[in-house]
Amino acid sequence: MKSSLPTPEVPDILLAASVEVLKNPGLAHHLAKASIERWFAFELAAELDMRLDQRGWTALVERGGSNFDGTRLGNFDLLLVPTELVMIQERVHARVDPWPTDAIAIELKACHLADGAAARPRALLGDLTEKPKIARACGRRCSFFGVLITTSGLGPGSASRASSATKKRELEMAFTELADGLTIVRRTEPSEVTYRDWSGQVWVEIVVAPPAEQD
């Protein structure tokens, strides 16, 4: 039997699950290879399932949906839905078409500061402002949250190491600022990560869109 999953609880649930994913020994490998988002989504889904199973909810990875007329509505990185809507034999490509209005959409984005700190503030902007509009226009309103994975990791030959003072300031700014009304509501402590000759820090932030986009 499904129990409620109030949206005010979701940031804490996402934070706790993200903390556990950050402990995964495979994390540094994926960060160093710049292939973190899909891997993180599956690991996060596993952690969320453990926390939500008793409440009758499950996390679907790369799950989209259709409108009542069959129009495709696009994909979300993760979609939290009542377990009763998911057929066990179709766990990987589960059908929830159309998704329920109490579904919770989660968008993930990774940011490597070595690529420049300027991209980080807008990393989730499109996902958390445009996708809610599409869902709302189709009558499939649901709540949206963002998970932003940021790493300062660098290899020993990176030119980005040349000015440590500048990079330190960029890191401080990147750790505190997002643009265009996106709000950080939870943040993990930074973790040290090392893979071969690549090393740095990684942290996760839970982000919400401007209130007007969620109405």
Give me a quick take on this structure.
With 215 residues, this protein is an alpha+beta fold.
Based on the model shown, name its key terms.
7 strands; alpha+beta; 215 residues; seven-stranded mixed sheet; globular; 31% helix
Outline the secondary-structure elements:
Layout: H1 10-22, H2 27-32, H3 36-52, E1 57-66, E2 72-82, E3 104-112, H4 125-137, E4 143-151, H5 164-176, E5 183-187, E6 191-195, E7 198-208, H6 211-214
Parallel strand pairs: 3-4
Antiparallel strand pairs: 1-2, 2-3, 4-7, 5-7, 6-7
Helix pairs in contact: 1-3
Strand content: 25-35%
Please compute the radius of gyration using only Cα atoms. 18 Å
Q: How many structural units, i.e. domains?
A: 1
Query: Helix/strand-derived class?
Result: alpha+beta
Estimate the mean pLDDT confidence.
82
Low-confidence sequence ranges: none
Helix content: 25-40%
Largest sheet properties: 7 strands, mixed
Counting DSSP E segments of at least 2 residues, the number of strands comes to: 7
Can you tell me the overall shape? globular
Question: What can you see in these coordinates?
Answer:
- The chain has helices spanning 10-22, 27-32, 36-52, 125-137, 164-176, 211-214; strands at residues 57-66, 72-82, 104-112, 143-151, 183-187, 191-195, 198-208.
- It is an alpha+beta fold.
- Strands 1, 2, 3, 4, 5, 6 and 7 form a seven-stranded mixed beta sheet that branches.
- A hairpin with a 5-residue loop joins strand 1 and strand 2 (72-82).
- Helix 1 (10-22) crosses helix 3 (36-52).
- The two termini are 28 Å apart.
